[in-house]
Structures are given as structure tokens and as C-alpha cells.
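task queued by scheduler; priority normal; single chain, no ligands, no partner chains; default sampling; output format set to C-alpha cells
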Amino acid sequence: MKSKTEFYKKFFEAVTKQGFEVKRSTSADYLADLYYKDQLVAFYTRMDTIEKNPFVTVPDRLMSAIHDLARQSALQAGICVEKPYTDKDPKIANGVYKLSEYNDVILACKHHPMFEYVFSTYRLSPENGTPVQRQYFYNKEEALENFAVRSGLIDEKKLFSEEELVLIHSELIKFMITPNDKTVEQFERAGIIIERIEELLPALKDREIHLEFELEFQHEDELLAEEMEIGD
């Protein structure tokens, strides 16, 4: 899950399909109000919990249905469901476990009733050691990558996302198999980069690259035509 916004979209769409109506809450404590058959039955809080409206009678099965939809939406969004810490990991406070620390940067994790395991990275203030610049993540890989960059373990300039790597791989393949003025050195270098990307993403080795040949070779035809005109 990239962000809570992704979850909100899935969850609110899911409850709407089940006959609920979602309205923006007028209270600062709530993100949204959930109505069922024109009755306000529950509140979605800014702490990402769902509370039953205590002033009306709300069947338990209805609240269970709302919680089930929230859980399903979170799973569909890709939350981390594998526990990333053990009782041996240092417990900081309020159920937060410290997974790693380097250069005054902390990687931590906490269990959440709806989002399972929520990660965070933050710096320790050099003045008093308190957490500052905290960032939250719902995907373990993204949290680890952010920690590695913030702590200085790796150079951010050398990082590419999986989508970026796939795009780069496609363009390099096209570069290798289409006519152009590449040198032997460029050809060899492109081959090395392709191999490195395929080591990171093995599935790319068997992927078919579809070329728009008319577009790819149009430039070559134009150049050839120009040369023939000059020759005449």
C-alpha cells in the first residue's frame, strides 16, 4: 500500500457498493461519517479506526460488516501482513518496536488493528534525542529503502523503482535491436546494464518487447530518402 489515500478510495467505494453513504465529517475528530438507510451509524476517525455511533441502535452485524470491508480493502491495497519483529527487538513505547538504527535514523514498526504492520522512519534530534521528521509506510520494502537512504547506507541517486527499471530495460532493448549509430562501446555498455537489471528482475528475461516498427524505422527511411535525393 503506497498511502492511506489508496486505502480510503478502496474502502469508501466498497461500503458505498454495500448500501452505505459516506459523507465528509463536520467534526475535527472524524474523517468521514457512515450512513445506512439515512441513519448515521458509524464514524471513521482520523486515527484510522471505526467507531459506532453511541446515540443510535446499530446492530453488531452491521458494524462487523463495516470492519470486514475495511480489512478487505486494506488487504487489497497491499498492507504488510507478516510480522517483521519479535519480542527480542527493543520496544520503544506505545507498542512500537525498533527494527534498526544507523546514523541517528530509526526504522520502527507498530501493529495496527486495521493496517496490520505500519512502518516509520525518523531522525533523532541531536539536541535532545527526540523523534523528528517521521515518515510512515505500509509497505515493508518502501520502508527499508527509505531507511537505507535517510541513514546514508545507500546513495539515493543510485535508486530506481521497479517501474523505472522496467521502462529502462524496454528502452535499452529497443536501442540494441533497432538501427542507429551506436558505437561498439555503447552496444556493450547497454548489454551490461540489461544484464544487471535482469538480475534484479529475472522476469524481464523472458518478456516480449513489442516494437512499433513503422515508427521505429520511419526515421531511417526518411534519412535514406534524403540521401537518394542528394545523390540525384
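post-processing summary
- The longest helix spans residues 213-231.
- Strands lie at 20-24, 30-36, 39-45, 50-52, 96-102, 105-112, 116-124, 131-137.
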